[in-house]
């Protein structure tokens, strides 16, 4: 491993950055789309089944097949990889956002309406804080998925740590495979841990979780 770092140290930093960049952009786009959509779907229950079903169907498409479908549309490079990973990131976040918002006590919703809160105020000040642990669980799961699947971006010229892994497989060099796999694993663990800290920061304390803001 020391020999690997001496020979590929600079490339390892570059590929790690590419992996993180692709994953972060994909996850951020997934959050920007799936969280608001999940909240909106709680107001349209019939539509929710269709949309979540569609997201589930997209999740079943093999990752290599989806990447291959991106090539005629977007060519090769980071962009098609980001789009494919964005699609994969949607289901866990969308489903958990919907389930988290649906789990809020209906009586609590009625109470805040009786206090004169608008629907938007109720969502922001009451429902989202209560649903936050479930929403963050979906984001954390999606983050781990995206970081792992980002290694496949190498197949379409997207870069990342997958370059080491697949070069190692093609050249029968275990050190390249290990050198690409270990950083991906470490990155996934660190990101999950950091998102866990963010979840604790954003989640209200249990004793206040069902109190209506004044």
Automatic annotation (TrEMBL):
Entry similarity comment:
Belongs to the binding-protein-dependent transport system permease family.
The answer, when asked if Transport is one of the entry's keywords, is yes
- Any one GO CC term of the record: plasma membrane
**Transmembrane stretches, start-end:** 20-41, 130-156, 176-198
* Residues covered by the ABC transmembrane type-1 domain: 16-195
> Where is the protein situated, by its record's location annotation?
Cell membrane; Membrane
Its keywords, alphabetically, are: Membrane, Transmembrane, Transmembrane helix, Transport
| GO-annotated biological processes | glycine betaine transport; transmembrane transport
Note the PANTHER family from the entry.
CHOLINE TRANSPORT SYSTEM PERMEASE PROTEIN OPUBB, GLYCINE BETAINE/L-PROLINE TRANSPORT SYSTEM PERMEASE PROTEIN PROW
Q: Which Gene3D superfamilies match?
A: MetI-like (1.10.3720.10)
Instruction: Extract the InterPro entries matched here.
Output: ABC_transp_perm/SBD, MetI-like, MetI-like_sf
Task: Report the principal subcellular site.
Answer: membrane
Q: How does it sit in the membrane?
A: Multi-pass membrane protein
- Name the record gives this protein: Glycine betaine carnitine choline ABC transporter, permease protein
């Amino acid at each position: 491993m020391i020999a690997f770092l001496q020979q590929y140290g600079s490339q390892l930093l570059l590929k790690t950055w590419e992996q993180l960049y692709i994953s972060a952009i994909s996850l951020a786009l997934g959050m920007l789309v799936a969280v608001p959509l999940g909240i909106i779907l709680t107001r349209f229950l019939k539509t929710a089944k269709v949309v979540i079903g569609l997201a589930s169907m997209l999740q079943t498409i093999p990752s290599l097949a989806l990447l291959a479908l991106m090539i005629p549309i977007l060519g090769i490079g980071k962009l098609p990889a980001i789009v494919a990973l964005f699609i994969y990131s949607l289901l866990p976040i969308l489903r958990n956002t919907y389930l988290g918002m649906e789990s809020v006590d209906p009586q609590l919703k009625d109470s805040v309406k009786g206090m004169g809160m608008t629907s938007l105020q109720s969502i922001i000040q009451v429902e989202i804080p209560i649903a936050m642990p479930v929403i963050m669980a979906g984001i954390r799961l999606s983050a781990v998925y995206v970081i792992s699947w980002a290694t496949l971006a190498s197949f379409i010229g997207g870069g990342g740590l997958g370059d080491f892994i697949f070069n190692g497989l093609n050249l029968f060099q275990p050190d390249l495979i290990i050198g690409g796999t270990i950083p991906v694993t470490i990155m996934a663990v660190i990101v999950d841990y950091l998102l866990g800290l963010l979840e604790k920061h954003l989640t209200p304390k249990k004793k206040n979780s069902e109190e209506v803001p004044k």
